[in-house]
Structures are given as structure tokens and as C-alpha cells.
Design goal:
Elements (H helix, E strand, L loop, with lengths): L10 E6 L8 H4 L5 E21 L6 E16 L4 H5 L6 E5 L4 E5 L11 E7 L7 E9 L4 E3 L7 E9 L9 E4 L5
Antiparallel strand pairs: 1-2, 1-6, 2-3, 3-9, 4-5, 6-7, 7-9, 7-10, 8-9
């Protein structure tokens, strides 16, 4: 059995989620949905939480899965205000064609939009096949922009997954495998 080694580079795509089925790759993976290029890859974390119940005499013990959480973290080396708006549930983006200026106002609980997004990380590998991770969720970690004299400005994001189907699926991992 061949084992693959994947380097962490990739692209992140994001599009509005209407609660229907996940569309075909070509509909998601296009320039319009490309959130930006990633500096140091992405991480996907899945955390199950279990609870064990035991009777008072210690005769019977059973463990149940009681909670699951999945997160996708990344940092963008390329981004713009349209990208940033998708990370901020209270963001209001306006465009003034006359002054050629975009303004993004952040904050205000009355501006809260409960929008969900389909987020897909794609690691492209022409030789071994592309790897994909797809979640439905929102950025719940806020954002941080760092401007340092000797480095590029990066935008950190952390998306928390919510179920994408009636089975409770939090993340879909798939690969193009030329050996199949």
C-alpha cells in the first residue's frame, strides 16, 4: 500500500451556503470563490468528547460520544476587503465608485448576519492527486491583521464547522487517487 506525504500549501475557497447539497468541485473551486492564497498551509482539527457512565457498584460501564467539534484554521497571505467581509458576521462593506474607495465597517450587534459558508481547502498535487477538506461553517475567532516592518501582512482565520447534512457530517475529506 502506497502512503502519500502531502505538503501544506493550498488554496481556500469560500462561498455562501444555502443548506442544500454540496456542489461539484468546479462550482466551488473557481477564481470568484478563491478566498486567497495561504502562507503556511491549513490545519483541520476534529475533537470528539466522550462521557462514561458507570453504575454505583462498578459492574456496568458504558461510554457515549456526546459532542463533536471540527475547526479549520489558516492564514492568508493574499486577501482583500471582500475576503475580510466573509470573516466578519457584523461587517458592512460599501463601495464608492466615485472616490474609488471600499469601506468595511466592523461591529454593531444590530449588523449581525447569521450567514453560513461552504469552506474548502484544496492541496493541489498533479502527481499524487489533489486533497480536499470541506466544511460548512463560519469564522468565530474574529480576525487579526499584523503589519510588521520586515514581514508581509497576514490575515488569520478559524472556521468552526456545523453539520452539512442530516447525518451530522462536520468535515468531508477526499482525495483524487490515480491508483483507484
Amino acid at each position: 500500500m502506497e502512503k502519500n506525504m502531502a505538503l501544506g500549501a493550498g488554496k481556500l475557497y469560500i462561498t455562501s451556503w444555502d443548506g442544500s447539497t454540496i456542489p461539484e468541485d468546479a462550482i466551488i473551486e473557481n477564481d470568484e470563490n478563491c478566498m486567497g492564497l495561504i502562507e503556511k498551509g491549513a490545519s483541520i482539527t476534529y475533537n470528539p468528547e466522550y462521557k462514561t457512565f458507570t453504575d454505583a457498584m462498578g459492574i456496568i460501564s458504558e461510554t457515549f460520544l456526546v459532542k463533536e467539534e471540527c475547526r479549520l484554521k489558516t492564514e492568508f497571505i493574499t486577501w482583500n476587503f471582500d475576503t475580510l467581509k466573509k470573516l466578519i458576521p457584523t461587517g458592512i462593506l460599501t463601495v464608492d465608485e466615485t472616490t474609488k474607495r471600499k469601506t468595511l465597517k466592523v461591529g454593531g450587534l444590530g449588523n449581525y448576519s447569521n450567514s453560513s459558508y461552504l469552506i474548502r481547502f484544496v492541496h493541489e498535487d498533479n502527481r499524487k492527486g489533489n486533497l480536499r477538506a470541506t466544511i460548512v461553517g463560519t469564522n468565530q475567532a474574529g480576525f487579526e491583521l499584523n503589519y510588521f516592518q520586515e514581514d508581509v501582512a497576514v490575515l488569520d482565520a478559524e472556521f468552526i464547522a456545523k453539520p452539512s447534512d442530516n447525518n451530522g457530517t462536520l468535515v468531508i475529506l477526499d482525495e483524487d487517487d490515480p491508483t483507484v
